[in-house]
Amino acid sequence: DQQVKQNSPSLSVQEGRISILNCDYTNSMFDYFLWYKKYPAEGPTFLISISSIKDKNEDGRFTVFLNKSAKHLSLHIVPSQPGDSAVYFCAARAGGGADGLTFGKGTHLIIQP
Amino acid sequence: DTAVSQTPKYLVTQMGNDKSIKCEQNLGHDTMYWYKQDSKKFLKIMFSYNNKELIINETVPNRFSPKSPDKAHLNLHINSLELGDSAVYFCASSQENRGSEETQYFGPGTRLLVL
């Protein structure tokens, strides 16, 4: 039972344009959401997060939007750069404390020159 | 300096062997985790340790046992390795504070291949 879903296995975007990565979740107990970026043969690197009490969080070129009623979040990258090519994982956590993260399957973002 | 490190990076072994993967974090965090990324690329939580206490243990076979000699280390021991144990294992750490927004930081992964 996938509680965090990333329905696009891959996404191709031209350099300079906006990249939009989507994530849906089913567990209404999730209260904290994160995006991780992963290069081949490396561990996931934290990118940006959002608490369920917010609907937007921005950090430089990266913005995460949360729509709680739709149980949907998205990551916007603008402008997209070649170095953004990687696999992006959406993750969620229910409750505070030492709970593990529930990850989506990832979306492979490819930035075309 | 690497914040979360794992050794070895690659591990190839025969079925039935016992092996260990080590993890160390120098972030001063008090909670550490082990995740498994299987062939379908799903990252799934296996264990977390907080102050040497096992907090969660998902449906992981008891052949897997985490060992934490101190707050900065969480090692993963695997007994009687099976073919299905082949995967990438990631260690992570975070500073837990109930109600706050903690972020988990990941190590580079250990690629285990069981032959």
DSSP helix count of chain B? 0
Largest Cβ-defined interface: A-B, 23 and 33 residues
How does the overall form of chain B come out from the CA principal axes? Answer: globular
Q: Roughly how many Å is the radius of gyration of chain B?
A: 14 Å
Q: What average pLDDT do the residues of chain A reach?
A: 94
Low-confidence spans of chain A: pLDDT under 50, at least 5 residues?
none
Helicity of chain A, in percent? Answer: under 10%
Q: What is the percentage of strand-forming residues of chain B?
A: over 45%
Give the class of chain A from helix and strand content and strand pairing. mainly beta
Q: What characterizes the major β-sheet of chain A?
A: 6 strands, mixed
What summary fits the major beta sheet of chain B? 7 strands, mixed
Structural class of chain B: mainly beta
Tell me which oligomeric state these chains represent: heterodimer
Overall geometry of chain A comes to globular
Q: Short summary of the structure?
A:
With 113 residues, chain A is an all-beta fold. In chain A, 0% of the residues lie in helices and 56% in strands.
Question: Which characteristics define this entry?
Answer:
heterodimer, A: 113 residues, mainly beta, six-stranded mixed beta sheet, five-stranded antiparallel beta sheet, B: 115 residues, seven-stranded mixed beta sheet, four-stranded antiparallel beta sheet, 55% strand
Any overview of this molecule?
The complex is a heterodimer of chains A (about 110) and B (about 120). With about 110 residues, chain A is mostly beta strands. Helix content of chain A is about 0%, strand content about 55%. Chain A has no helices and 11 strands. In chain A, the strands form 2 sheets. In chain A, strands 2, 4, 5, 9, 10 and 11 form a 6-stranded mixed sheet that branches. Chain A is globular, with a radius of gyration of 13 Å. Chain B is mainly beta and about 120 residues long. Helix content of chain B is about 0%, strand content about 55%. In chain B, a hairpin with a 5-residue loop joins strand 4 and strand 5 (about 45-50). The radius of gyration of chain B is 14 Å and the shape is globular. The chains are: A mainly beta (about 110), B mainly beta (about 120). The interface of A and B includes residues 42 and 51 of A.
